[in-house]
Amino acid sequence: MKFKSINQEQAVWAYTFLAFPLLLISVFIFLPIVFAFGVSFFDWNLLIPDKPFVGLGNYIEIFKDDVFIKAVKNTLFYTIGVVPTQTILAMFLAFLMNQKIPGKTFFRVAIYIPAITSSVVTSIIFVWIYSKPGLLNFLLSKLGIESNIDYLTNPSTVLPAIMMLNVWSTSGYFMVSFLAGLQNIPQSLYEAAKIDGANTWQQFWKITVPMLRPVTYFVMVMSLIGCFQVFDQVFVMSSGGPDNASTTMSYFAYQNSFKYFRFGFGAASAIVLAMIIFTTTAIQKKYFPPDSY
Amino acid sequence: MKKNLTVKKLAYLLLATLLVLTIGCSESAETLRYTSWQSSPVEQSIIRQNLESFKKDNPDVAFKYEPIPGNYPEKIQLMLGTHTAPDLFWLKSFTAPSFYHFDILKPLDDYVQRDTTFDINDFFPVFRDSYKDRGHFYGFPKDFNVYVLFYNKKMFAQAGISAAPKNWAELENAARKLTKDTNGDGKTDQYGLVIEPAIEMLMAFVYQNGGEFHDAQGNLKINDPAFTQALTFYHGLYEKKIATIPSDMGAGWNGDVIGRKNAAMAISGGWMIPYLKEAYPDIEWGVVPLPAGKKQATLAFSTGFVIPKEAKYPDQAWTMLAYLAGKKGMAEWTKSGLALPTRKSVAEANGFYKDPVYKVFMESVPFAVNFKINYMQRWYDESNAALQAIFYKGKDPILTMKELEPRVAKYRLK
């Protein structure tokens, strides 16, 4: 094969290698997205052959469904609670892990382990921790705080409990991103700061935080998307209960599609979720761009 | 030239991978497919043994057994929707109304008429008719369960209770006597009774009180006095702190509460028996029919075999169904006591009317009410959410039921 230019040669090879992954992504991601969008305009029950077109009917019904409204509120509460906590904690941990402290590798591993553990496993561990005779109540009683609640069946604690689990399990993952970002900050900046007499705290605020901005942006976007889509912890720990206090939007979509078999209705709720994620990410990009110092 | 070859090679490789992928997806089963869920290794071994006997009797029926390990109802519905459903599968009578409504099961009336050895009058009517819809049989029950009252014999002796409670008043009195603080730390650690904020358990009390979830036409009756009185009594036991719920005890379900000696009585079906024997062998328990309200009643659960309309081998599937739900197959399936037979002759042959434990279940059959709600599945989650609001949030039961009615009414199956 003759190539007209080096660019063309590169393009041909690039697409050759990309072809297979692109095909997989198209079949398993892009097509289903388009399909789900289409389905959301139909009243489709898998079990019966005819699927009448209902236009925006599913979307109208969704906003009249108070379980869905509750799910939206829960999801927003969850995201607003988890994203800042997670980001600040991950940045702080990364800063600590980047210092010359003894046992650094051990701490890095220990903090990262929750991130590589299956979420189902960590969820089950936390089910026990949060139970009435569980570890959390035990520790609180040792501190002299008498608390006798089952965190996962109490409507006011179930969602914060799941949020804590998520902060714990994903902070380590984002810490690694921040660590990589920290390694990229030129040492010379710190040296210059030291000469100017800046202490560690000032260095952190004036150099580390601004220089980490692209990583912070990445972490915020990823954790935002992850939080909006929270599903497995809810599925394993509370099944959306009690009284829908922990029903999130993805759990609602799952329930309706695969338990009540209303595919169109479930798809419509998933599309609404996608729209919310898209909008928030766009707002974030506009007002908190990754590369302004 | 050489580069040219590599590009071609790559292209072939891609094509080959695609081909393998597509071939891997297609299915070529020339045999009847039979599916069930999996709940325990013991159950699995009896199923396989049962199938071996079937094979001996019917060597000409080729079949494949494909159990589904988890999320059974979701998987079955997906298989039906994608036209890959097995020819014979298990269905709980409780989830069956949607299946009748969407008309996806094969009516079995013709087979019943032709097959003279398959005696349908031998089945207990309550379980048999739970697979009957608008005059057609869509399946036959393989086994059943009913709610009964389990109690701790030692705790009863300690509290000086000689006879198990026979009505609501006795149940409440016994529960009060049995509730105590055993280690003197000021907290109750032995409750009289453990109940669950679950609609099916409440329904047993509703039926005892002469109430129902909906009438024969499908109109909701959850705000009738007969329903709300039962709910008030049921929730009252918890409010008076003489009954507990599993989550208050850090337990997953009733079995753990009675097993850990946190409750003296529990309402449960036969699935409690193997659990107590295995996990808490030190508990000495007894079992009696549920106490009566205005009348005796309990909830009937059954699991049956059904054949989908789209079955590729319906005749063979019927042969298998007729064997497994027939006298011989059912006797083999139930003789170990893992499941209770829905055929009277089998129960008698197994000696279940004489066994001190199984007798209680068999004697509950005449007043058992079939748990069949003609609403789309979401009624169940809505109702349980309402009960959770009552038990966990302390919401007023009467008000909650008023709010629940329009929410459930939407999901009526016409």
Top keywords for this entry?
heterodimer, A: 293 residues, mainly alpha, MetI-like fold, 0% strand, flat, B: 414 residues, alpha/beta, D-Maltodextrin-Binding Protein, domain 2, 2 domains, 6-stranded mixed β-sheet, 5-stranded mixed β-sheet, 18 helices, 13 strands
Structure commentary:
The complex is a heterodimer of chains A (293) and B (414). Chain A has 293 residues and is an all-alpha fold. Chain A has a single domain, classed as MetI-like fold. Helices cover 72% and strands 0% of the residues of chain A. Chain A is built from 13 helices and no strands. Chain A has helices at residues 6-39, 57-64, 66-97, 104-116, 119-130, 135-142, 158-183, 187-195, 200-211, 213-228, 232-237, 249-259, 263-287. Chain A is flat. Chain B is an alpha/beta fold and 414 residues long. Chain B has 2 domains: 32-144 and 302-370, Periplasmic binding protein-like II (D-Maltodextrin-Binding Protein, domain 2, 3-Layer(aba) Sandwich); 148-299 and 376-409, D-Maltodextrin-Binding Protein, domain 2 (3-Layer(aba) Sandwich), CATH 3.40.190.10. Chain B is 44% helix and 14% strand. Chain B contains 18 helices and 13 strands. Chain B has helices at 2-25, 41-57, 72-81, 96-101, 109-114, 125-128, 153-158, 168-178, 199-208, 225-239, 254-259, 272-279, 314-324, 327-334, 344-349, 358-364, 378-393, 397-409; strands at residues 32-35, 63-65, 88-92, 132-133, 136-137, 139-146, 148-152, 191-194, 243-244, 263-268, 285-289, 298-306, 368-370. In chain B, the strands form 3 sheets. In chain B, strands 1, 2, 3, 6, 12 and 13 form a 6-stranded mixed β-sheet that branches. Chain B is globular. Chain B starts with a helix and ends in a 5-residue tail after the last helix. In chain B, 43% of the residues are buried.
- Give a quick account of the main beta sheet of chain A: strands, pairing sense, barrel closure: none
Estimate what percentage of residues of chain B fall within beta strands. 5-15%
* Multimeric status of the protein: heterodimer
Give the helix level of chain B as a range of percent: 40-55%
Number of domains of chain A: 1
